[in-house]
Specification:
Largest sheet: 11 strands, mixed
Strand order of the largest sheet: 1-3-2-4-6-5-10-11-9-7-8
Helix content: 25-40%
CATH class of the largest domain: Alpha Beta
Number of domains: 2
CATH architecture of the largest domain: Alpha-Beta Complex
Length: about 450
């Protein structure tokens, strides 16, 4: 455990500050000192705000004095937003992204910009895993996951277009929450793929993730594809299910041969723990048209990325990585028919998955192939997250245990589209089960 030590969770910090038990300036100084201590090795941030600016910005509100790490594809008017690219190395936007405005209006302060892969695609940044600096923290939300896991900030923003919240959360041993597609403001975040991009949250507990969502969710329909999900109410599992038995299905996929033995065992440990706590556990196999969604996601992502980066390729070809050029080339090679088929399948699966959810409350699945890969050049395979990003259903990563190398291992839980409240209440129940069993998360 390289950088781990007890630190306040989001709700703990908010409560203590609101009650006057903790001074916001003191808390910010603690977080700033924590970053000074470990940033030389962790490298979670591209830039940080000076401490005096953080303390000056702190204002009344439910997030008063709370430092938030902002993934460096999300615009901030006072800190450079580089998008993980030399093209935007010193670019300072003229205004904040919509979600950043919400954070400031609620009293939160922008602690710094967290490292992302290039344009939130594959080309990795410099951040190391807080548990072992020889391993990746995952991507593309590398810095956000690492900053929360190491105790620098209690809340960080990330984004997911395939697996970029769930996977780094699992690799770093924190909670990562991707709400239903369109439920969180995206305006001001540099797009990867407009049909797939989600903005989400890294926290240390499920209640913290719920709290962040409730404060920062869409409350109007001023953005393309925006939906409004009502405030998520914390309820016991009995209240959530109307005293019915909790039904969880463990997902079988065509890619299960990619899973490490330790990841397989982690899923088994989680299911045994939930079963012991009263859940009914079954297996789920989905028909092939669902798994066709993985390739359809690649079509949507590459086609839309090719449009997004057309001018970058024209003006700055030497500043784009090989990974990004390959994505653009793949998109340009797709036909209009390929794109339309992928969009149609996305809508078809978003509707049809609801029929499956009539028979269970949540899907339990592996969040990644196993522990964080060694080295910093490969941020991990997103294949176990991609289907749910494609469909737009909510998903949440939970830490469960650790590998023989001492690296985190976890699970993800998936809910029905727009059924975020039920999913987070099931996730909190699971989190409590794991803690009761004293699993070493």
């Amino acid at each position: 455990m390289r950088h781990m030590k007890p630190t306040l969770d989001l709700l703990q910090a908010c409560e203590q500050i609101q009650k006057g038990q903790l001074q916001a300036d003191d808390y910010l100084e603690q977080c700033f000192s924590r970053a000074d201590e470990i940033e030389p090795e962790l490298k979670a941030f591209t830039v940080r705000a000076p401490l005096k600016d953080l303390q000056t910005e702190s204002r009344p509100g439910p997030l008063k004095g709370i430092p938030v790490a902002i993934k460096d594809i999300i615009a901030t008017k006072d800190l450079a937003t580089s998008n993980g690219s030399m093209i935007y190395k010193d670019f300072v936007p003229s205004e904040d992204a919509e979600i950043v405005k919400k954070i400031r209006n609620l009293g939160g302060v922008i602690f710094g910009k967290s490292v992302t892969t290039e344009f939130a695609w594959r080309h990795a940044g410099v951040t190391t895993n807080p548990w072992n600096n020889a391993h990746t923290p995952g991507g593309s939300s590398s810095g956000s996951a690492a900053a929360v896991a190491s105790g620098i900030v209690p809340l960080a923003l990330g984004s997911q277009t395939a697996g970029s919240i769930i996977r780094p959360a699992s690799f770093c041993g924190v909670v990562g929450y991707k709400a239903s597609f369109g439920a969180v403001p995206r305006k001001g975040a540099h797009p990867v793929s407009d049909s797939l991009d989600h903005i989400g949250f890294f926290t240390r507990t499920v209640p913290d993730a719920r709290y962040a969502f409730n404060l920062l969710r869409n409350t109007d329909l001023n953005e393309k594809d925006a939906i409004i999900i009502d405030e998520l109410l914390p309820k016991s599992i009995n209240e959530t299910l109307g005293n019915a038995k909790l039904r969880i299905v463990v997902l079988k996929t065509p890619f299960d041969d990619l899973l490490s033995q330790e990841q397989i065992e982690t899923v088994k440990i989680a299911t045994r723990c939930l079963e012991k706590s009263g859940a009914d556990i079954k297996e789920l196999s989905l028909p092939q048209n669902y798994w066709d969604g993985i390739e359809a996601l690649a079509v949507l992502m590459s086609c839309e990325a090719a449009v997004v980066h057309e001018k970058h390729l024209e003006k700055f070809p030497e500043l784009l990585s090989k990974d990004m050029k390959e994505l653009i080339d793949k998109g340009n090679a797709c036909s209009v028919g390929d794109y339309i088929k992928a969009k149609n399948l996305q809508m078809e699966l978003r509707l049809s998955i609801a029929e499956y959810f009539q028979n269970f409350d949540a899907i339990l699945a592996a969040p990644a192939t196993g522990e964080a890969p060694k080295g910093l050049n490969f941020t991990g395979n997103p294949i176990f997250c991609s289907l749910w990003t494609f469909i737009g259903t909510p998903a949440i990563a939970l830490p469960v245990g650790r590998s023989s190398n001492g690296l985190p291992l976890g699970i993800q839980l998936i809910g029905n589209y727009r059924a975020d409240e039920k999913l987070l209440n099931v996730a909190e129940f699971a989190e409590q089960c794991f803690k009761a069993e004293k699993l070493p998360a």
